[in-house]
UniProtKB/TrEMBL annotation:
InterPro entries listed in its UniProt record: CobQ/CobB/MinD/ParA_Nub-bd_dom (IPR002586), DNA_Partitioning_ATPase (IPR050678), P-loop_NTPase (IPR027417)
This protein's record includes keyword Nucleotidyltransferase: no
CDD domains: ParAB_family
Keyword hit for Oxidoreductase: no
Name the UniProt record assigns to this protein: Cobyrinic acid a,c-diamide synthase
Domain CobQ/CobB/MinD/ParA nucleotide binding: 7-183
Species this chain originates from: Anabaenopsis circularis NIES-21
Taxonomic superkingdom: Bacteria
Amino acid sequence: MALLVGVISQKGGVSKSTIARLIAREYAAAGWDVKIADLDISQGTSTDWKQRREVNDIKPEVAVEQFRTVAQALKHADVYDLMILDGPPHSMQGTLEIARASDLLVLPTGLSLDDLKPSVLLAHELVKAKIAVEKIVFVLCRVGDRENEIEEARSYIHKAGYATIEGSIPEKTAYRQASDNGRAISEVTFPTLKQRAEQVVQGIIDLLSEE
Ligand SMILES: Nc1ncnc2c1ncn2[C@@H]1O[C@H](COP(=O)(O)OP(=O)(O)OP(=O)(O)O)[C@@H](O)[C@H]1O
Ligand SMILES: [Mg+2]
């Protein structure tokens, strides 16, 4: 059975797919057999991203497939070492199904209260639905350059009872362009941005290696 990582949020555009691709790319580069299950049927953005990756001949290849339901994705999980469930926005049912299936749940969130509060509420909902709190981890995404703002957001999440991945992903044109070109955010050329993406994914790899 593959290791399963769910990347989820009730909100749209918080970087779920960006983080899903980052994790998938790093494991694929390490020789793992990885698939992103694109569960966002209405948009299919990771499926489009894979096509851009192919057109631009970027290696390693990262497999992406669209699945209508989590159950269907799970039927195909056996042949992989790792499956990343790239969740849809605005679907509590879909999110819960991902949560139940996953070994680790990654919740990307922005720093504003408008982002943090619903993210923590989602985590509370998951715990209420008997998802182990140890499976849940937040990643601070689309952050600005104020260190104190980042640390305040981190402490908000910790006070609510949840863990965060060390480091954060800044909002940067270079990341957007990388994604537009079929790259993961660890495949940017700017060394500091590459490093920040790598630090975040290393935190996720560390958690998964405890599984
Ligand atoms: N740190 C960042 N800096 C710049 N652009 C970013 C960053 N993170 C994400 N983006 C861009 O923002 C858009 C939304 O990101 P992404 O698709 O990862 O979010 P999502 O949570 O999967 O959205 P959806 O809810 O629509 O599935 C994409 O165009 C992506 O390239
Ligand atoms: Mg998405």
